[in-house]
């Protein structure tokens, strides 16, 4: 298995640098570098670099939000290329990259860390969801409407508006695909740990990739899992 990309904000900035439109590129880099809300007080919460992408499900571990953001944007870009090639539809990749990088950005403001691997809602998260927060902020920062639409509709039918552009639809599908891959492998890893160590875990320490747990089981059964991961839970 290849080494995973060590996830830092810089990886997101590198993707943002692929945006051709200089004004959009600058806005995206600025909000990732300085993810502050313009009209709301920032709560005492997790931060962008340490936040999980969900409390209990996909990417629910430290820095999971960066991993999910990076991966979703890459999936969306790959899908854009396929849609262009196979269906002959022009996809605005600037919009896809910008919306991919920003779609869940303020999730971090909706979580508090209780202890490693255990999160609850922040005071702000009790009042507003991540989708409302980022949509409002993009409006305040005068992002193009196409980017705001793709971000606002990334939950598909469960969004305030359904995806109505090809870029928005691609982002919605990429977001689901990445969440689902991570979620399924995470639950498989939890099952393997229960079977091999006889313990129930809520989350994995950030050093333990669920993908590597599954691979170890496949390669050498519980013996290999215990050899690689003993003492880590
Ligand atoms: Fe989301
Ligand atoms: Fe997402």
Structural overview:
- The model has no long low-confidence stretch (mean pLDDT 93).
- It is built from 9 helices and 2 strands.
- It has 233 residues and is mainly alpha-helical.
- Helix 3 runs antiparallel to helix 4 and helix 4 packs across helix 7 (145-152).
- It has helices at 9-16, 22-33, 64-87, 93-102, 123-127, 130-140, 145-152, 166-197, 210-229; strands spanning 111-115, 118-121.
- The longest helix has 32 residues, at 166-197.
- It has a single domain (9-175), classed as Hypothetical protein af1432 (Orthogonal Bundle), CATH 1.10.3210.
- A two-stranded antiparallel sheet has the order 1-2.
- The structure holds fe (ii) ion (2 copies).
Question: Can you tag this structure with a few keywords?
Answer:
233 residues; mainly alpha; Hypothetical protein af1432; two-stranded antiparallel sheet; globular; binds fe (ii) ion
Number of separate domains: 1
Structural class by SSE content:
mainly alpha
> What are the bound molecules?
fe (ii) ion
Low-pLDDT stretches are: none
CATH names the topology as: Hypothetical protein af1432
């Amino acid at each position: 298995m290849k080494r995973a990309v060590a996830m830092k904000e810089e990886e997101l900035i590198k993707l943002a640098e692929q945006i051709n439109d200089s004004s959009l590129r600058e806005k995206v880099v600025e909000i990732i570098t300085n993810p502050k809300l313009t009209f709301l007080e920032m709560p005492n919460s997790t931060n962008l670099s340490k936040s999980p992408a969900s409390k209990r499900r996909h990417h629910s571990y430290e820095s999971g939000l960066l991993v999910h953001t990076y991966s979703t944007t890459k999936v969306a870009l790959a899908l854009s290329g396929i849609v262009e090639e196979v269906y002959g539809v022009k996809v605005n990749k600037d919009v896809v990259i910008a919306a991919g990088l920003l779609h869940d950005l303020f999730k971090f403001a909706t979580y508090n860390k209780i202890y490693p691997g255990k999160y609850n809602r922040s005071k702000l998260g009790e009042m507003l969801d991540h989708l409302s927060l980022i949509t409002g902020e993009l409006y305040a920062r005068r992002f193009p409407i196409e980017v705001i639409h793709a971000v606002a509709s990334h939950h598909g039918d469960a969004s305030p508006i359904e995806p109505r552009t090809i870029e928005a639809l691609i982002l919605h599908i990429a977001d689901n695909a990445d969440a689902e891959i991570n979620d399924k492998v995470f639950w498989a890893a939890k099952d393997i740990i229960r079977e091999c160590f006889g313990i129930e875990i809520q989350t994995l320490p950030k050093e333990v990739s669920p993908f590597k747990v599954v691979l170890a089981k496949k390669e050498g059964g519980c013996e290999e899992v215990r050899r690689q991961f003993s003492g880590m839970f």
